[in-house]
């Protein structure tokens, strides 16, 4: 499989290059030149596989010939040993809701599903290159801990995680910063997630810096993340044979829901993808009205979605603009110079063929958590709640699977607020609150972050 970028169709990169670089040198996002499309008899065969075998089949489309299928199978099986479910994910029926629980990995959010595999892919590439890699990650709360869990203690790898200072939940921060490992560096940036992501992107497009530290990234702009997340759309769709289902997806950086869109392009019978946002509603505005205009990030009860610059949306844009890379460049330039861009009505109509978009405020989030608890004695996390709430406003009677993206324990203060209940820590985190945290607080300045990293990147 070869890759080009949303801003340059003349590129011709291998999976390994795309994996290690993360962001394309032109500032665009890497994208496969061609997708495998499954026909119905091939889908029938895939539907018989257990999760790890299905993952091997789907993901191998994207990484041959750099990783052989047998090798990939071994990496994936090893990755998912750290999950508490043999089948990695499960669909729980709660009343008439189908909750796809994606949070049974080591750090209790869906980010583990891709990150545990990615950790092993680094090992694989590293065993031949033996060069120290410095991985820089921006996190809105869950990617950081998933990356740390997947990469701590790995040879020849340093990890630098930037999280927005005081803007993630207490437990999210603890899970990240209470890891005592020499190759892990936590930075609390005095800014919001968009600031963290901006600094990481600036470092990626600074060729000298990037090369000096042999920089790599695992944010959802890394195609490997998307590839791993496509799998659970197939897995859950197969549980509803002969139906064209909807998926409701709590969305921030547009990575997870974009994976569903790719699954649909690969032939999976999906009706609509529901983009559920919190009050940071840029995606709801662009999908419903065509206005892509980042406003100031507002803190919400679903912090992992407190994002206004939704990077992966550029990948959808590329399709909507008929894969015209210069048109993508024009819109991105307009975003940079004028702070926004506007899509034409025809372009919005193309998006609406595949997507619905709804936003949920904090009051509704709390109410939804409370309602489900009262009716079904089941507790969902605040991100999942936005995806449940989104369904209430959509008139579409297709069967819908809701992506449950995090364990409620990660947001226990909000759960307490909504239901009065104290959530107990899952076994692996029984002593979490007693553990010592380690992180440095830095100003929101690219130069200072670079200096910090240069000092520690060896
Ligand atoms: C990251 C995250 C999201 C948003 O996912 P994107 O891929 O950024 O859209 C939703 N819920 C939780 C719990 C998350 O950690």
Features:
458 residues, alpha/beta, Rossmann fold, 6-stranded mixed β-sheet, 5-stranded parallel β-sheet, binds pyridoxal-5'-phosphate
Question: Helices and strands in order, then pairings?
Answer:
Blueprint: E1 3-5, E2 8-13, H1 15-21, E3 30-32, H2 40-46, H3 51-63, H4 69-79, E4 90-94, E5 97-101, H5 111-129, E6 133-138, H6 143-151, E7 157-164, H7 170-177, E8 184-189, H8 193-204, H9 207-212, E9 215-216, H10 223-237, E10 245-250, H11 255-265, E11 270-277, H12 282-289, E12 291-292, H13 313-320, H14 325-338, E13 341-342, H15 345-354, E14 355-359, H16 362-376, H17 382-392, E15 400-404, H18 412-419, E16 440-442, H19 446-456
Parallel strand pairs: 5-15, 6-7, 6-9, 7-8, 8-16, 10-11, 10-15, 11-14
Antiparallel strand pairs: 1-2, 1-3, 4-5, 12-13
Helix pairs in contact: 3-4, 3-10, 4-5, 5-6, 5-10, 6-7, 10-11, 12-15, 16-17, 16-18
The structure holds pyridoxal-5'-phosphate.
Pyridoxal-5'-phosphate binds next to α11.
Give your account of this protein's structure.
By secondary structure, the chain is α/β, with parallel strands linked by helices. The model has no long low-confidence stretch (mean pLDDT 96). It has a domain at 90-106 and 238-419: Rossmann fold (3-Layer(aba) Sandwich), CATH 3.40.50.1100. α3 packs antiparallel against α10 and α5 (111-129) packs across α10. The protein has 19 helices and 16 strands. Strands 4-5-15-10-11-14 form a six-stranded mixed beta sheet. A five-stranded parallel beta sheet has the order 9-6-7-8-16, with helices on both faces. Helices cover 44% and strands 16% of the residues. The radius of gyration is 20 Å and the shape is globular. Bound molecules: pyridoxal-5'-phosphate. Residues 109, 111, 142, 220, 250-256, 304-305, 383, 405-406 line the site of pyridoxal-5'-phosphate (PLP).
């Amino acid at each position: 499989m070869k890759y080009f970028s949303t801003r340059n169709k003349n590129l011709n990169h291998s999976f390994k290059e795309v994996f290690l670089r993360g962001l394309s040198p032109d500032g665009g996002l890497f994208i496969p030149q061609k997708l495998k499309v499954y026909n119905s008899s091939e889908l029938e065969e895939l539907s018989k596989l257990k999760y790890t075998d299905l993952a091997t089949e789907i993901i191998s489309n994207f990484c041959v010939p750099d990783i052989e299928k047998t090798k990939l199978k071994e990496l994936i099986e090893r990755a998912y040993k750290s999950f508490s479910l043999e089948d990695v994910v499960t669909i729980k029926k709660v009343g008439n809701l189908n909750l796809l629980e994606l949070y049974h990995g080591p750090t209790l959010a869906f980010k583990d599903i891709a990150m545990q595999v990615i950790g092993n892919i680094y090992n694989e590439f590293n065993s031949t290159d033996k060069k120290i890699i410095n991985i820089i990650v921006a996190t809105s709360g869950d990617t950081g801990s998933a990356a740390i869990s997947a990469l701590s203690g790995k040879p020849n790898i340093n990890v630098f995680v930037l999280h927005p200072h005081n803007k993630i939940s207490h437990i999210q921060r603890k899970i990240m910063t209470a890891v005592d490992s020499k190759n892990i560096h936590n930075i609390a940036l005095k800014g919001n997630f968009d600031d963290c992501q901006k600094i990481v992107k600036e470092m990626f497009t600074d060729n000298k810096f990037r090369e000096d530290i042999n920089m790599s990234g695992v944010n959802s702009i890394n195609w490997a993340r998307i590839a791993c997340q496509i799998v659970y759309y197939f897995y859950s769709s197969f549980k509803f044979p002969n139906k064209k289902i909807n998926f409701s997806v709590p969305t921030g950086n547009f990575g997870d829901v974009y994976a569903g869109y790719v699954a649909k392009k690969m032939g999976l019978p999906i009706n609509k993808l529901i983009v559920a946002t919190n009050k940071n509603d840029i995606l709801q505005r662009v999908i419903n009205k065509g206005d892509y205009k980042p406003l100031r990030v507002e803190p919400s009860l679903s912090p992992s979605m407190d994002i206004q610059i939704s990077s992966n949306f550029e990948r959808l844009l590329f399709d909507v603009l008929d894969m015209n890379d210069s048109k993508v460049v024009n819109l991105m330039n307009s975003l940079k110079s004028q702070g926004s861009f506007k899509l034409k009505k025809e372009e919005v109509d193309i998006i609406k063929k595949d997507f619905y978009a709804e936003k949920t405020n904090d009051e509704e989030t709390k109410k939804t958590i409370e309602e489900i608890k009262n009716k079904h004695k089941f507790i969902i996390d605040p991100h999942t709640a936005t995806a449940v709430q989104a369904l209430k406003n959509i008139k579409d009677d297709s069967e819908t699977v809701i992506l449950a993206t995090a364990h409620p324990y990660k947001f226990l203060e909000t759960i307490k607020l909504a239901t009065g209940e104290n959530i107990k820590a899952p076994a692996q985190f029984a002593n979490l609150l007693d553990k010592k945290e380690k992180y440095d607080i830095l100003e929101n300045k690219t130069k200072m972050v670079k200096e910090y990293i240069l000092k520690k990147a060896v």
